[in-house]
Amino acid sequence: MASRFLAAACHISPITLSAVKTTEKCISFVNRAAKNAADLVVFPESYIPAFPVWSALQAPTHNHGFFERMAKESIYIDGDEMHAIRDAAKQTRTVVSVGISEKVRYSTATMFNSNIIIGSDGEILVHHRKLMPTFFEKLTWAPGDGFGLRVANTKFGKIGALICGENTNPLARYALMAQGEQVHISTWPAIWPTARYDNPAANRNRAVAHCFENKCFGILCAGLLDEASIEEMCSMTDKKGYLESGLRDSSQASTLFLGPTGAATLPSYIVDPVSEEKTEMRYLCKEEDILYAELDLEKCVEGKQYHDVVGGYQRLDVFDLKVDRTRRKPATFTRKSSTRS
Question: What are the start-end ranges of the H helices in 143-188?
Answer without folding.
Answer: 170-177
